[in-house]
Amino acid sequence: MKHYAILCGSAPEGKIQKKIDRMYEFLLEENGGLYAENEIMIFPNGINELNIAWFMNSLRAVGITEIFLCICEKVNFRTV
User: Fold this and answer.
1) If residue 68 lies in a helix (H) or strand (E), which one and from where to where?
2) Whole-angstrom Cα distance, residue 9 to residue 77?
């Protein structure tokens, strides 16, 4: 099984959410699934429905069988 994670934030341009940072770090750990860095895509400023659908379909087309999608609401931003 191939897996991929998509992390979507709602941060203003030039910032990233602490929750996204923490989720990214968790996914790299054994308890989080041991994702490789190239198996995680971050959209810190959000993504629209059309683009996320296209991206997910593209992942399925290359054999990704498990997609983890995390969407965070506005809270605790930091400058990138």
Assistant:
1) strand 66-71
2) 10
Two structure tokens written together for 8: 């979507």
Could you read off the pLDDT tens digit of each residue along the chain, which spans 80 residues? Answer: 699 999 998 877 777 778 888 999 999 999 999 999 999 999 888 888 899 899 889 999 999 999 999 988 765 555 55
Residue whose C-alpha is closest to residue 32's, from 50, 7, 49: 7
Q: Which residue has the tokens 């399925």?
A: 60
Q: At which residue do the structure tokens 């290359």 appear? A: 62
Is 27:35 a contact under the CB 8 Å cutoff?
Answer: yes
**Global confidence as pTM:** 0.81
* Tokens of residue 44, six digits: 């810190």
